[in-house]
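Hi, here's the filled form for the chain we discussed.

Project: internal
Contact: R.S.
Residues: 328
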Amino acid sequence: MADIREINEKIQQASSFIELLQMEIGKSIVGQKNMIERLLIALLANGHILLEGVPGLAKTLAIKTLASTINAKFSRIQFTPDLLPADLIGTMIYNQKKEEFTLRIGPVFANFVLADEINRAPAKVQSALLEAMQERQITIGEHTLKLEEPFLVLATENPLEQEGTYPLPEAQVDRFMMKVIVNYPTRDEEKLILQQNTSKTSKVINKVVEPSEIINAREIAKEIYLDEKIEKYILDIIFATRNPEDYGLGKIKSLINYGSSPRGSIFLAQASKSMAFIKRRGFVVPEDVRSLCGDVLRHRIGLTYEAEAENITSDDIINEILNKIEVP
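And the returned structure, exactly as it came back:
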C-alpha cells in the first residue's frame, strides 16, 4: 500500500501536463473525447496509433493539434500510390563537387510522424516504415540512424474509399498499439463545430509540454501497480481469442481465423497503465482493461470467410469474450 501511495504522489506531480494538453486540444477539437484520450494513452505508452474513420472527422487535425502542443519536431507525410521508400526515410545523394555520396534524411526523422491515409502507399513503402516503428531506427545504405525519443507514428485511414488503396500488411498493423474507430460527433457537438468554424476569431494552440516531461511520465507509468489477478484477466482475454473453446466460447471458434499475438497482451497491459496514469491512479482496475480491449485487439483478430459472410466484426467477437470471461 505504501508503494501505491508513493506512485500516486509521483503521478500527481507528473500528470499536470495532461490537463494542459487536453485544454489546448479542446481549443481546436470539439468532442471526440475517446479519440483524444486514446492519443494521450499512445503518447504515454510509447505506442503507435491508427485512426480509422470517414473523411472530415478531425483525425488529421487532432494529430496536428497534439503535435502543436508539444515542443518537438513534427512531420506530415501524405501517403500516395507513387510514394517511394526514399521519400519517407531519405536516401544517398551523389555530390558532384566532393565526388561522393552524402546522406539526406527523410521526413520520418521527427518526434511525431503523421502518416496520412497510410493505406494509399504500396507494400515497399510500408516495409520502410516497419523498421522505424519497431526498432526506432532507420537503415539507409550502410548507415543505421537512431530516431529521437519520443518517436510516435500517428496514422489515419479512410475505410470507405477502396480505389487506389492497399490493405496494410498484417505485420505492420500488429505494430500499431491501437486501432481507434472515429465516429461522427453528436448534434450538439456539431453545432459547436459549426459556430467555431464560422466565427471571426481563431484560437492559437500553444506549446505547453516539453518532450522530457513525456519521457518522465512514461517511466512513472511503468511503475503503476498491475495486480496478478489483472494480469490473469488480460491473459484470459488474449487466450480466448486463440482458443475460444477453452473458455466456453466454442460458438465463435469457426469465426476466428487467428487470434491476438503476444503484442496484444503487452500493449493491453501498457495501455491500461497509461489509462490509470491519466485517471491519476497508482494501480490498474479491470475497467481500464475492458475499456481498451476493442482498440488494442480489433486489428489483431483475423476473421474467417464465415464471419465476414455473416457481417460479424472483430468488435463483436471481443464483446462476446468480455461478456464471458469473469471480471476479477
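Let me know if anything looks off before we file it.
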